Please model this.
Amino acid sequence: MMNTIPKTADFIVIGGGIMGASTAYHLAQRGCKNVVLLEKEEFHGQGATGRCAGGVRYQFSTEINIRLSQISLPMIERFPEELGQEVDFQKAGYLFLLNNEKDIATFERNINLQHSLGVMTEWLSGDEVRKRLPMMKLKDIVKAAFNGNEGLVDPNGLVMGYINAASKLGVNAINEVEVTGMKIISGKVAGVETNQGNIDAPVVINCAGRWAGQITKFAGFDIPIKPLRRQMLVTTPLQGIPEDFPMVIDFAQSLYFHREGEGILTGMSNQDEKYGFDQSVDSDFELFNMERAIERMPILETAGLTSHWAGLYEVTPDAHPIYGKTPVDGLFLVGGFSGHGFMHGPVSGKLMSEIILDDEFKTLDVSMLDLARFEENRLIHEYNVV
Model:
């Protein structure tokens, strides 16, 4: 819904995807008034959030990502009760297929770490996987990692749940407003310029996802967040796909499958993809994706195409997000989740409300995921990127 923009605000949140919606809600929940949420598209969650596969998982290779999931996924489970919005959390599990010694050795370390933190991921043998997924060709699979507490969530339900709850708490969520500049006075943020006029505010939170780098350019500095296209497709209905078919990831190929309605959603990372904002579907790569998918799941050869789309990951050099303060006083940043932002959106909004209002992260210490780590060579690399 398009509204008239105000002249002033106490807090401006830029971006109406999961990060912006969660941040605005958590600020309002803390009692903040005069919170304005700006989204440049016609509807909220049309960027990376609306174009993601909706996967949520605990299986990461770093302690900080695992701990983010340990807080965020239970928040998603409680979402219908606490915010009154169904999000269709389907716990079909994540199954990582492994066919080489390098990945197996790395996943062994990852699973040991997960177990030490209370995440009870299971090891499956190749035979166990083949028995579990008879419709797939898995002769080369040696081992697999499975966690049944992971699965899929409706991205739109989560975003709109936060938007509606935030609006009830007084947040002014405005669509079709594009930020075109930043007002800085003596090194401190003083507001934003938009295509519909200027808004003065002492605090601005950059939750712009793939556009986060453009927002910081307006403020006079660069951040290492780049957009990278990922695309996926959904098939026509298929017979023989069980209700509990998990999110299956052929890790070596970065090829994934999950049940979508009566069909299959499949996607794959393009190793030759260049950074950029192009969200058109690459038909040549789509054909390559389908060929690889059919090799793994021959039943797909009989399927038609019902829909396909591309979205943009917002990636950082170490595949971890950036939280917190920036070189401009009053300008905060959360972004660069490198493909797993949707699942960490709930906790991230809470963390941002804490660093803004309390000057510290209270729920979980994510201070090591600051912007300065890239210049100070404190990178924390995530191996388990899908």
Notes: The chain has a mean pLDDT of 94. The domain at 1-90+150-225+316-386 is CATH 3.50.50.60 (FAD/NAD(P)-binding domain).
